[in-house]
Amino acid sequence: MADGLPPDLLAALDLVAFERQPDGHFRAAAPLPDWLRGHLPPDAEGCVTPAASSDFLAHFLAIAADTWDGPPGGRLMSGPFTEPGADGVERTLEATAIRAASGAWLLLGLPLMRYTTTQRLLQAARDEALDVERTRRRHAEREILLHTIVHDLSNPLAGLRGSLRLLRADALPEDDRELLEIAHRQADRMRDLIHDVLRAFRREVDAMMPATAAPADAAETLRQTAQLLGPRAQTAGVPLAVDAPEALPAVADARRLERALMNLAENAIRHSPEGGTVRLAAAVDGREVRLTVEDEGPGVPEDAREALFQRFASLGEQRGQIGLGLYTVRLAVESWGGTVGYEDREGGGARFWVRLKRPRERLA
Amino acid sequence: MSETLRLKVCLVGAPAVGKTSLVRRYVEGAFSEEYLTTIGVRISRKRVEVNGEPVGLVVWDINGDDAFAPLQATYLRGAAGFLLVADGTRPVTLDRVLALRDELAEAFGPTPAVLAINKEDLVDEWDVEDAHLEDLRASGWQLWRTSAREGTAVDDAFQALAEAAVATARG
């Protein structure tokens, strides 16, 4: 391989190619750069014994043996590793084992650009995730406070409503009866508001809980959602159609995923014309799982899309709803490292989608 | 006296539980308030004594296991012990690492493991029930409430892991 490449090209790439020798040593295809001389000192003949000075490479070479002994074209990458070299200086490196027709090769390089970029992205993602967790804790603390306040409001309100009920309307003059009726309605409204505030707050806190270790079966959750919403869809005259494989593991919490899908599907039923079908689908899409909820309604107006998943976004939702539904869906999905979005459905209607990560393979 | 035994031990757990800080405290005796996520694996070495015998610990600090950067089994092969790390202010990290323990046992067979519930210094934010930890102890876990910031029980947790790993390696 290196015969066809000028040595300074590999050096410019901060990459060193070693050919595996029958005796287990590795011979460099070009003079070693200084940084690598410090990490893996070569012997007089320019060979190195990585396992002697690197704990990581000792481990990696043992795994790479299968690649080198396999057919040409095989490749195994180590991922970044950080360790002190023989000179005591800590470096971040990356190793690649390649089985080429010309022999068995070990590439060692400095993954600086990719490492830095990856670290920045991963750091941002994890900082965000930690922020969500901290916010959840603060919300949970506020919830306790809110419960206390609401409880203190509820008790006198219950007394007030009880007293109003005991008032004999028929003993009152006509004008006073009307005032009593207004007082009844306002007291009921206050009770409903208190319940709405509590419900909305609890949903918001719940949506921010991070994912548990066990993945959810997205397909089964989708089917359960459809089953739970069956009677409501039937009443609305909107058939529900489900298209999902038998099982589809995804990074999510099953209980909260069901609630998020319920939210999207309820929206779809609500905005669907009578006789229009609401379709729920789940499928693998590359390294993700894609869930969609479609309806044949008017879709989301252009000017409402930007704030669609924001807190208190107005989507012309039915009276009595606080505009937190899609917001809590987004919080939940993002807490699992997923994304949520909207697009027009071909042929008219709305399509809400949720992308979830597929769980990693079991350790083996 | 030169080391007669060299053992690889791995730190695993959710991101931001303090794995790197524990290693830094243990190996260098230092602590930094800055959270810098680990990419891949960071390897450190520490010489310890177990029953009067010098042992070389090769400590593999492995990136936090989450949806953004899942744990890679290749890093874990050949480990003589696992230090499972959770954050005492985030109970979900304890659930995750306990679930991970089952996966490790399934994938690599019985391997010594010690549990470190870190950030013990954050008294006001501590959110793991004492009763839960007592239950874990009662079910056989070697468990330490550690603080990488203050150094609390850090050496104890690593020493317990080293002793368990040596005992298993010696059969």
Regarding CATH, which class of the largest domain in chain A?
Alpha Beta
CATH topology of the largest domain in chain A, anyone?
Answer: Heat Shock Protein 90
For the largest beta-sheet of chain A, the strand count, sense and barrel status come to: 7 strands, antiparallel
Poorly predicted segments of chain A? 317-322
CATH homology superfamily of chain B: P-loop containing nucleotide triphosphate hydrolases
In terms of quaternary structure, the protein is heterodimer
- Total domain count of chain A: 3
Q: Quickly count the helices of chain A.
A: 9
Number of spatially distinct domains of chain B: 1
Main sheet strand line-up of chain B: 2-3-1-4-5-6
Q: What composes the largest sheet of chain B?
A: 6 strands, mixed
Q: What would CATH call the homologous superfamily of the largest domain in chain A?
A: Histidine kinase-like ATPase, C-terminal domain
Describe this structure in words.
The complex is a heterodimer of chains A (364) and B (171). With 364 residues, chain A is of the alpha+beta class. Chain A has three domains: 2-110, Beta-Lactamase; 128-207, Helix Hairpins (Orthogonal Bundle), CATH 1.10.287; 216-357, Heat Shock Protein 90 (2-Layer Sandwich). Helix content of chain A is 46%, strand content 20%. Chain A has helices at 7-12, 34-39, 50-53, 55-68, 112-166, 174-207, 218-236, 254-271, 325-335; strands at residues 15-20, 26-28, 47-48, 75-77, 81-84, 90-100, 103-109, 216-217, 240-243, 249-250, 278-285, 288-294, 339-344, 350-357. In chain A, the strands form three sheets. In chain A, strands 1, 2, 3, 4, 5, 6 and 7 form a seven-stranded antiparallel β-sheet that branches. In chain A, helix 5 (112-166) packs antiparallel against helix 6 (174-207) and helix 7 packs parallel to helix 8 (254-271). The longest helix of chain A has 55 residues, at 112-166. Chain A is elongated, with a radius of gyration of 31 Å. The model of chain A is unreliable at 317-322 (pLDDT under 50). With 171 residues, chain B is an alpha/beta fold. Chain B has one domain (5-169): Rossmann fold (3-Layer(aba) Sandwich). Chain B is 33% helix and 26% strand. Chain B contains five helices and six strands, in the order βαββαβαβαβα. Chain B has helices at residues 19-28, 73-76, 91-108, 130-138, 154-169; strands at 5-13, 41-50, 53-62, 81-87, 113-118, 143-145. Chain B has a six-stranded mixed β-sheet, with helices on both faces. In chain B, strand 5 (113-118), helix 4 (130-138) and strand 6 (143-145) form a beta-alpha-beta unit. Chain B starts with a strand and ends with a helix. The A-B interface holds A 55-56, 59, 62-63, 78-84, 92, 115, 118-119, 122-123, 125-127, 129-130, 133, 137, 209-214, 251, 336-337, 357, 359-364 and B 8, 15-16, 35-37, 39-45, 58, 64, 66-74, 76-78, 90, 92, 95-96, 99-100, 103-104, 106-108, 125. Strand 5 of chain A pairs parallel with strand 2 (41-50) of chain B.
